[in-house]
Design goal:
heterodimer, A: about 210 residues, alpha/beta, 5-stranded mixed beta sheet, B: about 350 residues, 4-stranded mixed beta sheet, about 25% strand
């Protein structure tokens, strides 16, 4: 019997990890997460900790630890493009004992630009075809999750060519809540800076004010 | 019946089609009315009409063009003429070179897919252009140069972010799948939901579902149901809703190319969003050769006297486990709509 806890650890900054996430991590015997996720939840001692980011490897470690209280750290919240689906697909819904909600990068980004995120369309081009951006043309409020390849510049290139950006305000939220956080309002004057390879980016589209 | 909106194609697919038409024009002296281009990562080809505007044909150069269609989501590039000019050279360096021309942007800033100084023709479209030309000129001892240009591209680019992204002089040639789906996935899902609702009102005891036309026709032939709901590429979404409604029995029929993806763990079977099922099905059937399509595997299995009962059974079990659907029948059909496997699971 699997006893997995999926722990949302927020977008990156340790200030954005909930008490509940820390407490849940402390009560697990085995913790699986990426280096920065483990750093975000702070001092956790006396656990078997696996620093792992590959999906297959994580699933294998989870599989090997059946019976133990396993905590899988998830960036942001488990409800948005996370491992949660894959884990439940592999081990069944009942294998997950609890999901601890986290603050997603989408929520944090909207808070930073003081915009509401009701009815927001979330599109991920993280390892997915750039054509999916076409979806944005049907929504007033959009959050786009980027990756290294489909970075903010390439996303803006494709979006604008798709004619999606008329009458909108656009923001690039880079490394939201981390020390190197940067928010660029893509107004007609702002200079668009090139993202680094390691930057995590969310692009927001909201109705123009 | 599900009516999908009109699909469009990307600037990359348009450029590849124009280049292929120019190649055929140069080789045969006749400009084709339309060409098929292979789409990346999918075993699918796309038919694109060739524009019969101004064209040139000389001894070693040819030009052809395509009018870019963006489908039901008109965009900045809709209606632009994408031109491909092909030159065949006697050159010591063989191969195919792709460059840009008037109306295509040039990259002046880091961070984009192309390097500074290069044309804004992204890697996937480049590969598509090269691929479509090499289908016509398979002889690799020639050198071909293809110049892609866009009529009024520079003007169109002013309506885009290209100038601010440091892409000067025109639009970008983009796309990774070649197709622009009129993205109303939500609308498609809404239609699926409505149909399931109607089916429930007609008969709450059982429901017939299929990914598409093959499954629907085949199920109608063998079971004569009053309704078959097509769930397009969203089996996961459809199953969730079927479970929620509480049908006593669920029947699913379709081609294993689509339905095996459920077994692979993809609740969304769109070719752009899930890998091909071919390798998976081959392995499942214990075949070691390489196959291009699942249909090929079906032929092979028929030749050795096998069937797909076991695959149907595994799909049954998977659906039961994931979606908690109590009682289910899975029927598998080939492209000719012949039954090749069937399994029943009751809770």
């Amino acid at each position: 019997m699997h006893r997995i806890t999926l722990i949302g650890v927020g977008p990156g900054g340790s200030d954005y990890v909930t008490y509940k996430a820390v407490k849940s991590a402390q009560s697990c015997e085995v913790i699986i997460g990426m280096k920065h996720q483990i750093a975000a939840i702070g001092e956790i001692t006396g656990k078997t900790i696996y620093e792992q980011s590959g999906i297959e490897e994580i699933l294998n470690i989870v599989g090997k630890n059946e019976g133990k209280a396993v905590g899988v750290l998830i960036t942001g919240d488990a409800g948005i493009y996370s491992l949660a689906e894959k884990i439940m697909e592999r081990f069944g819904r009942d294998s997950v004992k609890e999901i601890v909600p986290g603050i997603s990068s989408v929520m944090a980004s909207f808070a930073k630009v003081k915009e509401q995120w009701l009815n927001v369309k979330i599109i991920s081009v993280h390892g997915r075809p750039i054509e999916r951006l076409n979806d944005a043309s049907h929504h007033e409020r959009v959050a786009i999750l980027c990756d290294k390849k489909n970075n903010s510049m390439r996303v803006l290139e494709a979006l604008s060519q798709m004619g999606v950006l008329n009458n909108s305000s656009i923001y690039i939220c880079r490394n939201i809540t981390c020390d190197n956080e940067k928010i660029i309002e893509v107004s007609t004057l702002a200079d668009l800076t090139t993202p680094e390879e390691s930057d995590k980016e969310v692009v927001l589209i909201v109705p123009a004010r | 019946m599900l009516t999908l909106n009109k699909r469009g194609f990307t600037t990359g697919a348009g450029a590849a089609a124009a280049a292929k038409a120019a190649a055929i024009f140069l080789k045969t002296g006749t400009l084709p009315k339309s060409v098929h281009i292979l789409l990346p990562n999918v075993k699918e080809s796309l038919l694109i009409n060739i524009h019969s505007g101004t064209l040139t044909l000389n001894i070693n150069t040819a030009t052809a063009s395509v009018i870019k269609l963006s489908g039901d989501d008109p965009d900045v590039t809709n209606g632009l003429e994408i031109v491909a000019a092909l030159r065949l050279l006697k050159h010591s360096i063989h191969g195919i070179a792709v460059t840009g021309g008037a109306g295509v942007g040039r990259v002046t800033k880091e961070g984009l897919q192309q390097k500074v100084g290069d044309w804004a023709i992204n890697p996937v479209p480049r590969a598509m252009i090269t691929q479509s030309v090499s289908e016509v000129f398979s002889d690799d001892s020639v050198r071909l140069e293809i110049e892609i240009s866009v009529v009024n591209g520079e003007l169109a680019a002013l309506k885009t972010f290209n100038p601010r992204l440091g892409i000067t002089g025109g639009i970008s040639i983009l796309g990774t799948t070649g197709i622009v789906e009129p993205m109303s996935v939500d609308a498609i899902k809404e239609t699926v939901k409505c149909e399931i609702d109607v089916s429930f009102c007609e008969n709450p005891d059982s429901i017939c579902l299929a990914p598409g036309k093959i499954g629907e026709d085949a199920l109608r032939r063998i079971l004569q149901p009053s309704r078959v709901v097509q769930f397009s590429n969203f089996p996961g979404f459809a199953m969730d809703y079927v479970k929620q409604k509480g049908f006593r029995h669920t029947i699913i029929g379709g081609h294993p190319g689509k339905l095996a993806k459920i077994l692979m763990g993809y609740a969304d079977t769109h070719s752009g969003r899930s890998p091909q099922a071919t390798a998976f099905v081959a392995e499942f059937m214990g075949l070691n050769d390489n196959y291009n399509t699942v249909e090929e595997i079906i032929g092979k299995v028929a030749n050795i006297g096998g069937d797909f009962t076991k695959l149907a059974h595994e799909i049954c079990v998977k659906i039961q486990n994931i979606y908690r659907i109590p009682s289910i029948d899975v029927y598998l059909f080939d492209m000719k709509k012949t039954l090749i496997g069937h399994s029943t699971c009751t809770g």
